[in-house]
Amino acid sequence: GFFIFFLIKGWVRSVRAQKANLFLHVNDGSSLLSLQVVASSELNDPLLTFGSAVEVTGTLRKSPHQNQPVELEAQQIHVVGECNPVDFPFKIKERHGLEYIRQFPHLRCRTNAFSSLLRIRSEAATAVHSYFKENGFVQIHTPVITSNDCEGAGELFQVEPSGPQNEEEENFFSVPAFLTVSGQLHLEVMSGAFSRVYTFGPTFRAENSQSRRHLAEFYMVEAEVSFTQSLEDLTKVMEDMFRSATEHVLAHCAEDVDLFHKHVTPGHRVSPEGRLFNLAIDILNRSSEKFAFPTDWGCDLQTEHEKYLVKHCGNIPVFVTDYPYDLKPFYARDNQDHPEHTAAAVDLLVPGVGELCGGSLREERLDLLRARAGLEDTYSWYLDLRRFGSVPHGGFGLGFERYLQCILGVDNIKDVIPFPRFSHSCLL
Amino acid sequence: GFFIFFLIKGWVRSVRAQKANLFLHVNDGSSLLSLQVVASSELNDPLLTFGSAVEVTGTLRKSPHQNQPVELEAQQIHVVGECNPVDFPFKIKERHGLEYIRQFPHLRCRTNAFSSLLRIRSEAATAVHSYFKENGFVQIHTPVITSNDCEGAGELFQVEPSGPQNEEEENFFSVPAFLTVSGQLHLEVMSGAFSRVYTFGPTFRAENSQSRRHLAEFYMVEAEVSFTQSLEDLTKVMEDMFRSATEHVLAHCAEDVDLFHKHVTPGHRVSPEGRLFNLAIDILNRSSEKFAFPTDWGCDLQTEHEKYLVKHCGNIPVFVTDYPYDLKPFYARDNQDHPEHTAAAVDLLVPGVGELCGGSLREERLDLLRARAGLEDTYSWYLDLRRFGSVPHGGFGLGFERYLQCILGVDNIKDVIPFPRFSHSCLL
């Protein structure tokens, strides 16, 4: 036979000392799997503890155990960074819950569960970019700081230089500036020159909530498609992206996803099949369920309604289309259907999470857009987009954390983002 | 022969009416090249103007002209969005300068130059992600909102909810919160569990500058490599990434890059060769150039020095290494070389732009880090990273806009980002 001389650098995940032999598992973060190291017990060292950083040289050989292809027979073990087991908050062989590890934002990446989550998140981001790239979308870096308050959408963060403000000084940007709640309007600018554009980045809501569903800083995937006149073109992109990203993640992070499906949410399954619905209200009204909120036409869907609809359809993703016009923001396209009067809007509801995506055709007709109040002053640039070479178009946004919650079955949104920000909490 | 029935949807870039025939160029944003449409002059329409949006159906045929493989013989032309040539700020057949089109942030993507830029930017972003992915880096979404002020690095933006503040209310996050100036410290958290990590996203400086070199919001590519003890490991990653991204862009956006090299910066060339230097001060001192700023050991390099060094080396990218320790932030690794006393830091200087990347080995030794003042209180979590399984590591950041300026030869940083933000300007 022949030997492969090998050097592994990583962190100790387990230590087991027997009479003659020492067994270590060393993980370098590239996957959930650790490399088993076998050494003579002479190489043992009191600094070889759970969490310590090591460099091990030796020869790689076929493992006698079925669940690992190879193991490393160590010739030298060097502890480069010690880790006091008393002070270190994670203990060997314990499976700490997500809530416990969340208390240590600077260390939780060193647990199996959270390092798996971070690899999955990275791979899912890659999958999103790949999907759009392969389908001819141009990526646009829409701005984080913006002077428009979008749909007047709820709670905004405002931005000014820190430190003592000069009282006479105006705003830094001469106008009030906010953190973006959506890149949509900026993407729509690009829809006047590109057939397909997308953006993928952080968005913000100053919501005073510590719920398991909300963050002050979260990631959105947003896309706009030009020259489209049907919601089904949009739902097709939403469904394709969901399916393609999910297949990619399942294929590239099998062990990591397995860890979640087995240990974090036993029995969780992902079903990328979808169903299209435009009679959501009828379904709600025909049900015998008692809802806290009204289900009359013209009322918005509440979380309880969304949950019912998903359950009613057999716990698969469900598209709800054509919402009452008056419930939707100014840019949603008027279906001009009387007497209902709906807007060409669509939401994608998924099991466990509720609303995952929201989208609409955009009102491309200058006269109809003008008829809605208040745009001339603050959004004259937006009207310009309809003045010059306007095209029918539409788009949607997907909450990236909710997507991760959905495929992994993670209950709390704080457990799917590296550094969660929410009211009263901005650690690190 | 056979005919290919074809439908193109796009924007009119040129109109030429002859006696019998009408010629259009229609662009859909997928590339710089437009499709030539040939129609009977009966299909002419006064609404067919520069900038209008059209849908054209017809048959695709081999073009008699050498510079285009095919043309579309139109059967039907439908103007979906008109464009009044008097009001539209861009005029047919005029080559507007970057400075002129910058005045119209919502429309400038409709010019050849800026749509080329946006395609190049999108492709360069893809190239950056691909490089890291192919080299085993995990992507980390480092936070935009942070409670640490990093290196005390200059001007920070602070973040609070907009609208009337409740006087009794503390900060939204209970502590002052800022927009990030760098994802480095958050990446270093991840360097305790992954061998290689990177982040690519927006960063912020509240610099009161309207110069052609500065933005309040700009993109950084940042990477950290664990288990490394040499600056050369870092410069290798920097050089590889630069080379790989540039080759990718040149290969995938040849026409777009050509537009810049021919028309925007005639004669501009990219040279991805680099050179390593740790005797920058000697070179400056031996030169006969008169500098405004001193070149004594211990003084920081100024723009004039950087320019000289790049020129001195033959206008290629130059690495400058091992800066005076006292000039570098607390995290830079002490080389413990006396009497010079340097830190293991490196900058990459490039022609035209100056500093493109900055990086360093990070001080992984707890005792040395503690010896620098003030960390116990505000950065106890950072010290924890050295307390538990600390590893020698290092990293760097690259200014993405400066990278684009460098490869395209664009003088003003505002012309390489979709929506530039700087003091007194936050349009859209």
From TrEMBL, chains A, B:
Aminoacyl-transfer RNA synthetases class-II family profile domain boundaries: 118-418
Q: One short Pfam family name for this protein?
A: tRNA-synt_2
What's the protein here called? asparagine--tRNA ligase
Q: Record's superkingdom?
A: Eukaryota
State any GO BP term from the record.
asparaginyl-tRNA aminoacylation
Family the UniProt entry places it in: Belongs to the class-II aminoacyl-tRNA synthetase family.
KW Ligase (keyword) present: yes
Q: Give the range the annotation lists for the signal sequence.
A: 1-17
